[in-house]
Amino acid sequence: MRKAILVLALALAAALPSFATTISGTLVNGGNAGISGTLYLQLSQQAAQLASGGCGGPTVVVPSVAVAITVSSGTVPSTTIIGNDCMAPSETYYIVTFKDTNGNTIFVQNWSITGSTLNVGAITPVVVPSGTYSIGTAFITNLIISGMCSYNGVNCATGNSVTSIFGRTGAIVAQTNDYSCAQVTGCGSSAAPNYPLAITGSANSGGIPCFTSSVLQQTSATFPLNYVVVGGGVGGCPTATQILPNGTQAVTQIPGDNSSLVATDAFVRNAVAGGSVGTGLTLVCATVTISLSTGSFSGGSKVTNSASCTGLNTATDAIDCTFVGDTNSVSGYGANTAGTLTLKHWMSANTINVDQMNNTSNSITAGAASVNCKGIR
């Protein structure tokens, strides 16, 4: 009668989907063919079905009755059981045995079944320690602790107690200076340092601490005043390079100089304005203004506008052109979904050329606009 009641309690618990796990899936042999037989699921120990988390408890789940699932041609039909995540203690699992139609045991595994649904093909068997593990005179067999704990032959529970520490008797209470920092592993690693710190060895005053390997720290060379830091790369300490303090006169470039010396505004303006700067820049021709063509440009069309620049050599010179004024509001040059005209600057002997190109398939109307161009050598 008691066995029948236990079977009925387990069956009723398994029929409540609000707190149960539905398992299904496929079992195949090494040749990927479905196998037939019976899958038996038996709880590892008596457990309490939880009342929290929608688990449906409290009830007692007994391990003595296995759930039998008939597997036909590899198909595991949808079957609802109480999941291990709805039981206490949390270490429970199902002992799963599969027997073929001839009663042969094919495998025995331990499964942890959790969640609302679970495919048996996604289950990783639970590893349960086996054998005996010794810890002193205590031993553990299959996670069951038995025997007597002792240390140096003295029973842990009834043996001699500590009567003194560091020469003090009575209650064991820690006191300042019981241990030095050198006696404690990791001492000082989390303590706030007091500056300035005293170090062993030597360091360069005015240098920067740096790591020259993963375990070696040293200092860089002394940095002079008003120098900037330059990275030293892997295995090297930082170095320094001089900067220019306020009020200090810098060494500037001279005509033909392409070094890192300072180039003043006057030096640059002289080159752009066409002044004689030796092997620097020279203006081939003064600024020429080219009026661009106006009117309708059909899709894919182009118009070339030209101006004279005496002495312009295509082998050695360059040109620079820019719009005269803001052309964003000029038809054909401002932003437009239908497209805008594109300018291409090019030179021929003694001539600066500017192409107006319509690279779209739409017709674009060009308003009045012009560009200023220079020839530079």
How would you sum up this structure, described in words?
The chain is built from 2 helices and 29 strands. It folds into 4 domains: 121 residues, Sandwich (Immunoglobulin-like); 30 residues, no CATH class; 40 residues, no CATH class; 94 residues, Immunoglobulin-like, CATH 2.60.40. The N terminus is likely disordered. It has a 4-stranded antiparallel sheet, with no helix packed on it.
Which key terms come to mind for this protein?
mainly beta, 6% helix, 36% strand, three-stranded mixed sheet, 4 domains, disordered N terminus, Immunoglobulin-like
What topology does this entry show?
Layout: H1 2-14, E1 20-26, E2 37-43, E3 47-49, E4 59-61, E5 67-71, E6 75-82, E7 87-88, E8 94-100, E9 105-111, E10 117-119, E11 132-135, E12 138-141, E13 144-147, E14 150-151, E15 154-155, E16 164-165, E17 168-169, E18 209-211, E19 217-219, E20 227-230, E21 239-242, H2 265-272, E22 283-291, E23 295-297, E24 302-308, E25 318-323, E26 342-348, E27 351-357, E28 364-366, E29 370-376
Parallel strand pairs: 1-10
Antiparallel strand pairs: 1-6, 2-5, 2-8, 3-4, 3-7, 8-9, 11-12, 12-13, 14-15, 16-17, 18-19, 20-21, 22-29, 23-28, 24-27, 25-29, 26-27
